[in-house]
Amino acid sequence: MRVALINPRFRLPIDTRTTAHLGLAYLAAVSERRGDEVVIFDCDVEQESVVDFVQRFRPHIVGITANTPQVKQAWRTAKAIKEVYDCPIVLGGPHVSVLPEESCEKPYVDIVARGEGEDTWIDICNRLERYLEDQPEFHTEAFLHPENDVFKDCLGITYKTSDGQIHNHPDRPTIADLDSLPFPAYHLFKMDRYTNLQPATDHVDGARSFSIMTSRGCPYRCTFCSQSIMPIKWRSRSPESVLAEWRHLVEDLGAQEIGVLDDSANIRVKRLEEMANLIIENNLNHVPWIFVNGIRANLASKELLGLLKKAGLKRTAFGVETGDPEIMKTIDKKIDMDTIRQAFANAKAVNLETIGFFIIGLPGETRESMQRTIDFAIELDPVIANFSMMTPYPGTKVYEIVKRQGRFLINDWEDYVFFEQQARYEMGEMTAELVEEMYRKAYRRFYLRPSPIIRRLKTKDFWLNLPRNVRIALNTFLPKKEKTGLRKQMEAEGAI
Ligand code: B12
Ligand code: SF4
Known about the structure:
The strands form four sheets. A seven-stranded mixed beta sheet has the order 2-1-3-4-5-6-7, with helices on both faces. The protein contains 19 helices and 17 strands. α9 (about 270-280) links the parallel β11 (about 255-260) and β12. The protein has two domains: about 1-170, Rossmann fold (3-Layer(aba) Sandwich), CATH 3.40.50.280; about 195-465, tm_1862 like domain (pyruvate-formate lyase- activating enzyme), CATH 3.80.30.20. By secondary structure, it is α/β, with parallel strands linked by helices. The protein binds cobalamin and iron/sulfur cluster. Iron/sulfur cluster binds near residues 225 and 294. The site of cobalamin (B12) has 39 residues, from α1, β3, β4, α4 and α6.
């Protein structure tokens, strides 16, 4: 079959980096293994319109990915396609996994695949192919007719039959053996149109920067995190499987930098040690790599980090979240400040660069607690401090807390991004003004110190991408107008 996998256009208000979508790369790989002709159409880098593409390629099925800020664009994309061309349209990804009915209610969305997608996607494609075997012409309406019952027993989907009924099938078990998955289909991306995900190496173009996932899911349940509600339990690949992909990235694709995207890569320390030893023994440690997401600080001993450094690790991130011990207890991170201090000290002792992820505006915060977060960031002094505006994603505990005790200042999924200066909710004494002030202060206090400025000015990337970097700096440091317009409009609509 001809299969189209689409990343809907969604550029963040800040000038974010553009990278190949690993979820689509996996779906494409399993489709190719099924024998399909696959095109990944990433609207962020394509010049052709998605409608022109679909009319030209005439896919038998279209899959569209959607996180929360992307979902409306996913709907627009689905609508535009359905208006000119009839085929089943399937949505997947973090947002629709949590709110499947919301998308299925749209007349132009047929199926939502929840959670991990590979097996569900192949199951859907197999059923479609069987159906098409004796159909001269395809009509969604006939395909999804309740009498056909094409999706009977198909796990992990929410879908709409042509009588308008929405059916919610049970979750699909997660893939038990991650080693059974093929490598992500990077050959289907126009790699030269991407940037590197999180530059650790000074100036590597996107065509030479790849992502890898060595484990999936996360056993923790932090109150603010979307990952904690994905129906995905923590599983890992064998060190041998990771090594084989690592070799492929370095030797076949010419990777000059690798980003490890795991949510919690160091849950099983022994596995990571074996992985590191294999990378060293196979002389693949000359390519620098980074932990893009936080690794668990409680499992980051000096010995482990030293070994990873030998294996080529250049930088690691830690999810610190807050500098306030009381707030820390409320977010279910299951970590304390001294453990975090020790993890940063361990990383620095073995000469690893560090990133700290911090959140401003968690439920219950005060001016003092947010100040403690800023002070803690300065004390830890990572190379990159990433302050996010607390954004309550649907399904998370924080979302429920705000719904009960606070008031949202956003009612549009497209605003669910966390690097903007606008507060996303208010609660008790935590006003938007206060959170926005502290958010700006965090960036100013952290970055307008001599050491981060000198560090940045010394990079080649800074000078090569000067206009972009100046734009980001201005966006970050200059105060923006408060969203009074939106608030007024929402008040008028009775939304807050
Ligand atoms: C790398 C990453 C990024 C990168 C690159 C994104 C990219 N091009 O893929 C960058 C830094 C750009 C990024 C940005 C953002 N990200 Co991000 N990101 C991630 C991260 C860490 C890994 C993504 C990944 O590759 N996963 C691995 C693949 C295999 O999983 P997947 O993409 O989810 O796909 C699987 C399933 O979801 C499903 N599936 C997905 N799409 C489809 C489509 C179909 C048809 C089907 C059948 C199935 C299916 O099947 C796939 C295979 O199993 C995730 C956390 C995570 N562990 O997933 C957060 C995550 C996806 N990001 C998140 C967020 C919030 C953002 C931002 C909004 C943050 C911001 N700046 O405000 C932006 C949005 C940017 C944008 N333009 O869309 C949230 C999403 C929450 C939500 N409710 O939507 C996550 C879950 C992090 C979290 N813990 O909260 N992100
Ligand atoms: S923040 Fe990190 S540790 Fe917590 S649930 Fe999310 S991925 Fe897991």
